[in-house]
């Protein structure tokens, strides 16, 4: 029964297009179906644990398509379902409070969570005692992440859709057509026998979602069940054995049926999803939609998952980075840029190498403004995508190179930061005040990055007071000579070379001479490339410090 209709191929929408920007290709495919407004763009996730930047992958992919459609004059709803009636299958290793603070299970009532295995997320108490439920807590955190990126998304609770009767009609339709549902599902799932019923009931006794349905009364909208054990991977969650009858609103469809039910009831026109769904839930979703639910599936698009420092993101294991943590290190538009790139190319998000991402964004931006040589495809992509990445297109903006911003972050003196940036030509007399402020905001982010990673920029200039140091006669003479060289007005590159020459003239070990400089300026035995750094500081201060005067 599987459909062969070409536009259900989740890879076709991008592979068959020559558009410079992938979101235009998706918008074309949606328009080709002559859709009714408002157009509905959907995503969704189960609120199982700490939201991370992997979750906003789907939201931002959908956002760019929605933005393109709005440009074309369509009314668009971007919705995101919190699949919060899913069951808690295992305990996460870490949790986060509403302020984003990560805590271990030992800091909350882990025993209470353990007693709630198998229950829907919205039927489990919030471990922090603040939100209405576990599901509500982690949905709030995801909403906060989206708000931090300034994206307008309508969140929809699956639990609410069931409770309010929105799913009543489609649930009853699936249950009326159980035989067809079983026949379709057999192609995708093992252990589908003649007793299989596509519904999970919430046990009135223990609250678990049980899969053992013993009777269906369509007219009354009731389901009879026995609460039996649940197999979750290698684990088993024990059922309580209760036998009861409940409403179709007190349960849920299995995911392979629930996804098409969402498409039907939310009238979805487009949904992006990860590669795992492309080879799993999507083919069955198409089949269920066409042959059980009696609708056409939305336009699909596959995106690749990305890794974090080379490893898969995982809420349950705690290998995550949150949106707010990333925005402490770079501007929102840089993070939005990460997701504007080709969806089917696998990438790694690295905090250690985040300077490379920022540099790439700066080149992308400079390409848009015609400030660098670029290929035809780079220009076409930047011309189309850049206005969708930034809040406002402003040619007067200033981007201080990220690693140079990290160098500036070695001093807490904000005026000195600005003075050095002006000295190096990044800020000019014509730079508007707002652009100066935004440019210098990158310094603080780069400073945070240096501290987070402990890299070569993680040093603090001791400008206000000289460290308590003492040197031998030869070292003091060499430092005085270097001071004279700096006073003569040489640049950082020349100062760096002179450091080597001065050490040689005085037969001082090179590492000891550099160490003396680091101790004077950073109260440390190591630091950045010393001469280059000193060349960026005001000459009077450097000369005075080398002479041990201030």
TrEMBL record:
Pfam families in alphabetical order: tRNA-synt_1f (PF01921)
Enzyme category, top tier: ligase
Superkingdom per UniProt: Archaea
Subcellular location: Cytoplasm
Catalysed conversion reaction: tRNA(Lys) + L-lysine + ATP = L-lysyl-tRNA(Lys) + AMP + diphosphate
Known EC number: 6.1.1.6
Record's keyword terms, sorted: Aminoacyl-tRNA synthetase, ATP-binding, Cytoplasm, Ligase, Nucleotide-binding, Protein biosynthesis
GO MF annotations in UniProt: ATP binding; lysine-tRNA ligase activity
Main location: cytoplasm
Coiled-coil intervals, chain numbering: none
BP GO annotations: lysyl-tRNA aminoacylation
Residue positions of motif 'KMSKS' region: 312-316
GO CC, alphabetical: cytoplasm
UniProt cross-references to NCBIfam families, sorted A to Z: lysS_arch
Record family assignment: Belongs to the class-I aminoacyl-tRNA synthetase family.
Stated name of the protein: Lysine--tRNA ligase
């Amino acid at each position: 029964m599987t459909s062969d209709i070409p536009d259900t191929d989740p890879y076709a929408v991008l592979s068959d297009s020559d558009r410079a920007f992938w979101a235009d290709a998706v918008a074309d495919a949606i328009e080709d179906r002559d859709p009714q407004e408002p157009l509905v763009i959907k995503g969704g996730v189960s609120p199982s644990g700490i939201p991370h930047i992997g979750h906003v992958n789907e939201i931002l992919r959908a956002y760019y398509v929605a933005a393109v459609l709005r440009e074309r004059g369509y009314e668009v709803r971007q919705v995101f379902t919190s699949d919060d009636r899913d069951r808690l299958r295992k305990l996460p290793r870490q949790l986060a409070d509403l302020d984003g603070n990560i805590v271990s299970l030992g800091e909350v009532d882990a025993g209470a969570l353990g007693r709630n295995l198998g229950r829907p997320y919205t039927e489990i108490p919030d471990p922090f005692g603040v939100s209405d439920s576990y599901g509500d807590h982690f949905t709030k955190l995801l909403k906060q992440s989206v708000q931090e990126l300034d994206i307008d998304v309508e969140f929809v609770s699956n639990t609410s859709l069931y409770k309010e009767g929105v799913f009543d009609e489609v649930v009853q339709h699936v249950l009326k057509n159980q035989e067809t549902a079983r026949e379709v599902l057999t192609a995708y799932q093992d252990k589908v026998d003649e007793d299989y019923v596509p519904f999970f009931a919430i046990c009135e006794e223990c609250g678990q979602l049980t899969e053992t349905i013993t009777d269906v009364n369509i007219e009354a909208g009731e389901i009879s069940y026995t609460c039996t054990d649940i197999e979750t991977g290698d684990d088993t969650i024990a059922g309580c054995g209760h036998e009861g009858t409940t409403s179709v609103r007190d349960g849920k469809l299995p995911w392979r049926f629930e996804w098409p039910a969402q498409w039907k009831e939310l009238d979805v026109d487009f949904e992006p999803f990860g590669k795992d769904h492309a080879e799993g839930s999507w083919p069955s979703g198409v089949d269920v939609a066409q042959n059980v639910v009696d609708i056409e599936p939305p336009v699909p698009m596959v995106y690749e998952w990305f890794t974090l420092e080379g490893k898969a993101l995982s809420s349950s294991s705690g290998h995550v980075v949150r949106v707010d943590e990333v925005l402490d290190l770079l501007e929102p538009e840089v993070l939005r840029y990460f997701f504007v790139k080709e969806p089917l190319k696998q990438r790694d998000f690295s905090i250690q190498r985040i300077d490379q991402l920022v540099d790439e964004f700066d080149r992308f931006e400079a390409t848009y403004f015609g400030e660098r040589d670029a290929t035809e495809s780079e220009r076409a992509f930047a011309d189309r995508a850049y206005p969708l990445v930034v809040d406002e297109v402003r040619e007067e903006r200033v981007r201080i190179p990220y690693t140079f911003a990290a160098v500036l972050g070695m001093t807490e003196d904000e005026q000195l930061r600005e003075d050095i940036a002006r000295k190096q030509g990044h800020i000019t007399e014509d730079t508007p005040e707002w652009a100066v402020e935004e440019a210098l905001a990158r310094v603080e982010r780069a400073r945070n990055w240096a501290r987070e990673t402990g890299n070569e920029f993680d040093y603090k200039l001791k400008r206000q007071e000289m460290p308590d140091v003492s040197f031998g006669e030869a070292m003091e003479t060499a430092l005085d000579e270097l001071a004279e060289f700096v006073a003569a007005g040489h640049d950082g590159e020349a100062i760096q070379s002179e450091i080597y020459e001065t050490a040689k003239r005085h037969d001082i070990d090179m590492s000891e001479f550099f160490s003396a400089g680091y101790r004077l300026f950073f109260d440390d035995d190591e630091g950045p490339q010393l001469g280059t750094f000193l060349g960026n500081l005001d000459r009077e201060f450097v000369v005075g410090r080398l002479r041990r005067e201030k």
